[in-house]
Design brief:
Strand order of the largest sheet: 2-1-6-5-7
Order of helices and strands: EHEEEHEHEHEHHEEHH
Protein name: tRNA (guanine-N(1)-)-methyltransferase
Low-confidence stretches: none
Function: Specifically methylates guanosine-37 in various tRNAs.
Distance between the termini: 39 Å
Keywords: Cytoplasm, Methyltransferase, S-adenosyl-L-methionine, Transferase, tRNA processing
Structural class: alpha/beta
Radius of gyration: 22 Å
Shape: elongated
Subunit structure: Homodimer.
Organism: Cutibacterium namnetense
Mean pLDDT: 93
Oligomer: single chain
Number of helices: 8
Number of strands: 9
Helix content: 25-40%
Bound molecules: the ligand N#Cc1c(N)n[nH]c1-c1ccc2c(Cl)cn(Cc3cccnc3)c2c1
Length: 239
């Protein structure tokens, strides 16, 4: 899997060399390339923004640098196997199932905008050439697309076959298909007693049936408390 990041702050992606994604890069599972969008400007000030047509506050990212960067990084041929991701406040909420789908992609290009956003013709052009995803991390405001690109990268790469040392652990995580759409149950490890707080006895019983039942009950309880929106979904197992 090749991952490209287009941003006016490419240093955001230096962290990928340190994290688990860096390990995957070393193992050859992923290839990471960060690019400075300003490398595709031609004026002395390396300008990437301009005032919005129709007026309004803030600045909008000009289309020209993006188009030239696309030509060099992706090419000028249409290829639906290339996935181009535009984080955006107006994007579709990014989900675990979207991460799972993207984990089989061979090429993902993250377009990380700033200011008030990117000229929409950039997205329209990308849609005419590749498979485009306009996504949002959630209902809160970030200053640009970089943090979202990092979060999406981690969510996707950890699902790439061969990346996780113990793929079985993926099945028990919150939001994973194996969890019935429920939140993950509380976790404990040694010592059994810590600052007057004990591990629930059932987990020390060695009785696998009771343990499974306790874990399921806890997942249902937590999901009802914290994510009632998940309890109505068909996959939740709670109705
Ligand atoms: N993904 C996601 C996401 C999220 N969950 N919050 N904010 C963003 C996000 C993503 C992309 C951009 C671009 Cl390009 C510019 N900005 C700044 C901005 C802030 C408020 C309104 N307009 C633009 C972005 C914010």
């Amino acid at each position: 899997m090749r991952l490209d990041y287009l941003s006016i702050f490419p240093a955001y992606f230096d962290v990928l060399d340190i994290s688990l994604v860096g390990k995957a890069a070393i193992n050859g599972l992923v290839e990471i390339h960060a690019h400075d969008l300003r490398d595709w400007t031609h004026d002395r000030h390396r300008t990437v923004d301009d005032t919005p047509c129709g007026g309004g506050a803030g600045m909008v990212m000009k289309p020209d640098p993006w188009g030239e960067a696309f030509d060099e990084i992706i090419g000028t041929e249409s290829d639906p196997s290339v996935h181009v991701i535009f984080p955006a406040p107006s994007g579709t909420p990014f989900t675990q199932s979207a991460a799972a789908e993207l984990s089989s992609a061979q090429r993902i290009v993250f377009c990380c905008g700033r200011y008030e956003g990117i000229d929409h013709r950039v997205i329209d052009y990308a849609r005419s050439m590749w498979t485009v995803h306009e996504v949002s991390l959630g209902d809160y405001v970030l200053n640009g697309g970089e943090v979202a690109a990092l979060a999406i990268t981690e969510a996707v790469v950890r699902l790439v076959p061969g990346f996780m040392g113990n793929p079985e652990s993926l099945a028990e995580e919150s939001f994973s298909a194996g969890q019935d759409g429920l939140l993950e149950y509380p976790l404990f490890t040694r010592p059994v007693s810590w600052r007057g707080l004990d591990v629930p006895e059932v987990l020390m019983s060695g009785h696998h049936g009771r343990i499974a039942s306790w874990r399921r009950d806890e997942s249902v309880r937590l999901t009802r408390e914290r994510r009632p929106d998940l309890t109505d979904s068909d996959s939740s197992g709670i109705h």
